[in-house]
Amino acid sequence: MTIAYRKDWDTYFMDIAFMVSTRSRCPRRHVGAVLVQGKKLLGTAYNGAPMGVPDCSEAGCMISEQYELEIVDGVETMVKKQRCIRTIHAEQNLLLFTDRIDREGSTVYVTDEPCWTCANMLANSGVVEIVYHRSYPKDTEKVRAMMASKGIEFRRLEGYEPPRETVLGVSD
Questions:
Q1: What residue range is the signal peptide (predicted)?
Q2: What is the pTM of this model?
């Protein structure tokens, strides 16, 4: 008798987040997010343009450039950051399409570490844990510090391998 392999809950929900990310039409980054209460899946979302509006694959990315002061080893440097402002992030869509009552005490699984804006929104949403796979180093230090101050568990799913059919190119 052969015993079948059974995925742990973290892997199961992260696999679902990656599957959800395949709905994204963003040419720069495909992101999926799921909301889980206990072991119950309450919602899914992916990044993309608002409903009924041409998306990046149709109208091109709408890139915004911002400069941010970073201090490394006591040296101040202005760093240019680029992001697409046509796209609503997966975490934002998840918050738009789920109820606050469902988010209280819940966990968000997201394919990519949340950016600063999404982290701010998640920190105020009622979730108690955020689990991600791919890092987003542009905002990591700020996001980690805020999550720690809010008491929200914030962790990268180490050793995780996404399902092959969901792995799409990521660019910055």
A1: none
A2: 0.86
